[in-house]
## 1
Amino acid sequence: MVCIDYSSINIAKPFHIGHLSTTVIGNALYRIYGFLGYKPVGINHLGDWGTQFGKLIVAYKLWGSKEDIEARSITAMLELYVKFHEEAEKNPALDEQARVWFKKIEDGDEEALSIFNWFKELTLKEVGKIYDLLGVHFDSYAGESFYNDKMQPVIDELKEKGLLEFSEGAYVVRLGDDLPPCIVLKSDGATLYSTRDLAAAFYRKKTYNFHKCLYVVAYQQNLHFRQVFKVIELMGYDWAKDLEHVAFGMVSLEDGTLSTRKGKVVLLKDVLDKAVEKTLSIIEEKSPGLENKEEVAKTVGIGAVVFDTLSSARIKDITFSFDRVLNFDGETGPYVQYTHARCASLLRRADFDWAAADKDYTALNNPEAFATAKLLYSFPDAVARACEKNEPYLITRHIIELAKAMNRFYYEHRIIDEDKAKTAARLMLAACVKQVLKTGLYLIGVGAPERM
Ligand code: ARG
């Protein structure tokens, strides 16, 4: 089994473009590992713990309404949260109330928990819509709060092993000269993000006995994961080496127009909607007669965004541009999808049973067909390398090259002519390309329409 921790959104916070990479890289890895015969476990390690939830409850009780939250969900929660901070500047007593409410959540107070769980439910419902659009799936939503009762044994073990030290007002584990100490408990006994990740690693090892446990999280958390992994290593567990931080760079928008009223937060939903809308207008222009235009626009528009996110090495920062990602002639998702649809159309156009017909493979005796066949042959290797390095872009690049090679073949040679045996051989190549493009797109989480 391979645990893959990805997306891992925060409750009551908008699903913004910052969560795009973790979601699509994680989803691609999930598919790639599954395809190669591993049993992947998709984990959404929800950010559902922390004093901010005390603040949210106070704000809700003072200024919120049930109807408004039901109607506007995360947007309304975010507004309450912002208002809390504005008001707390003037009235510090609010912070104290927030602490009290957070403590109530911790102590399992019924009212506190019911409000908190309601926020959580609404957030997940909203986020679930985006997961549906992206075709993303999770096997577990065990988030930070899930580990409330699972941290003590880890803390006890750290104590027993003499690894826990009181230093500068907190309990820490010293990690040697290369790394700053990992804070495990605050002086008042409060746990931290790291404490929860320690408990989560042990829980995952025990529950899934993973072969690898991946954390698809932005490179900003590099230090955090190095510390957590080191603590486990110092505790004497050799599986610490199987924990891996799959880091990635930042995504920003080239055109600032998508910023919401709230400032810099760019909602992923808005980006996806806009991609679909723009794709639809391209389709209206290019192929107005197409059936299920809306459906195709969805697959192509969303696919374009996903494809672009997986087009370069993870660690590179990406500046997102609609013109680039939706370019049907560039190295884009739509280009690969279009090549797939072109192969599908060739196969539809053949007016004889080419699969059963005798084939004259001398028709493929040319540099274009040979280059195409070579890329088909090396596809499994690209998938294996993508898995080994946790780099889905190795598949993305491969299918771009394959699509280019196929198009060169298509432009240089007539595929369907009077010679049936030669035509059958060329169609066989088109069928293989179609199959591999479809598989490659699937592995990176992108759909492949038959017509576009
Ligand atoms: N919720 C965190 C964030 O948005 C990411 C959590 C990643 N996973 C983990 N096990 N720490 O920054």
## 2
Amino acid sequence: MPKRVRTAVFPVAGLGTRFLPATKAMPKEMLTVVDRPLIQYAVDEAREAGIEHFVFVTGRNKGVIEDHFDRQYELEHTLEIRGKTEALSELQKDLPSAGQTSFTRQQEPLGLGHAVWCARELVGEQPFALLLPDMVFRAKPGVLKQMMAAYEEMGGNIVGVEEVDPKDVSSYGIVARGGGPDSGFRITGMVEKPEPADAPSNLFISGRYILQPEIFALLSEQTRGAGGEIQLTDAMQVLIRTQDFTGVKYDGRVFDCGSKLGFLTANVVFALDRPDLGPDFRKALGQLGLLDGAEARNSEPA
Ligand code: UTP
């Protein structure tokens, strides 16, 4: 039985340059898909997978994220006296319990690998989950929960993957697939941003990992890779020589909310999915002539 995964790391220290000026004074992870910040989706997914300790690696403007996961007594009191009980209970259920959150600081945005390394003292000598909050998933059960099932069977390191159009592989970390089913197959290699001709598959690493603590020693060597940043994939490529890596081609789909196109698409899809919003939103889009025939028909009130 592999050691239980209790801790999740959320790197939230990037500059979010693709979203300037929105991210000038606010972390990218506080941008909202419909009415929930990106970071809230990742925390909910981790909680659903059984995580009990939430470690945030923050940078500039960290206060907002810390405040988001704190109680706001004044606000709660006002909601209570105004009888807004639904909003109040929504707020309360989103919060991790007291003592379940930890914050550390990445003083300089030196890359994802460096951000993960900054969490080493808080994680300690135990396996941990890593969630990139700008990757938001439409998946049931959540992607980390699906990966946890593979971890319980196989142990080692687990990486969530999804198919990408082969011509786009050069934007992602790509895995080489060995034997085994979609729910847990052997990864035989990884490469960061390959040319399409050199890519070992079209399965890309979409921002969810379960990693063994030996990754920290490799990250501490801190060699800079692609883009002058300390890359997580480079450290994983070394770790795979001595430890097992299992890929999970999960049931679901990712939206890269670090890009404007992914973010806007996620907002539309998640809004259409929402029972309280979807029917009216579909109708509004239909009235603007923005839906095709089939979608527009769905917009007719039932
Ligand atoms: P990205 O590369 O998508 O984020 O990192 P970025 O650098 O903020 O975005 P752009 O490219 O400038 O628009 C993926 C995740 O890793 C975190 C980011 O906050 C994001 O959640 N990250 C990245 C760090 O915490 N530190 C870093 O040095 C880099």
